[in-house]
Specification:
- The structure is a single chain.
- Helix content is 79%, strand content 0%.
- With 86 residues, it is mostly helical.
- The N and C termini lie far apart (63 Å).
């Protein structure tokens, strides 16, 4: 999940995007916005970058194994076809 630093960064970006007069809103509004963003992100069921990278590595290994198996099956099918042609 996102840490306080990332939430502060998101809040800062939102306030920077507001028109000039609105950017001077009170600290309470900033805290409420931070809480709302945090709650919304928690409901989104996001994964951490570490979890994503682990799954990407698992997928890459699985893809490599699948490609090797497809090649092996192709070789075995060619051999079987050669034997049946005799």
């Amino acid at each position: 999940m996102l840490g306080p630093k990332q939430l502060d960064d998101i809040g800062r970006r939102v306030f920077e995007a507001l028109p000039g007069g609105l950017a001077t809103l009170s600290e309470d509004l900033r805290d409420n916005l931070r809480a709302a963003v945090s709650a919304t992100l928690a409901r989104m069921d996001l994964v951490t970058r570490e979890e994503f990278d682990i799954q990407r590595a698992v997928l890459a290994r699985t893809r490599e194994k699948l490609e090797r198996l497809e090649e092996r099956i192709g070789e075995l099918e060619e051999r079987a076809a050669g034997r049946s042609d005799r």
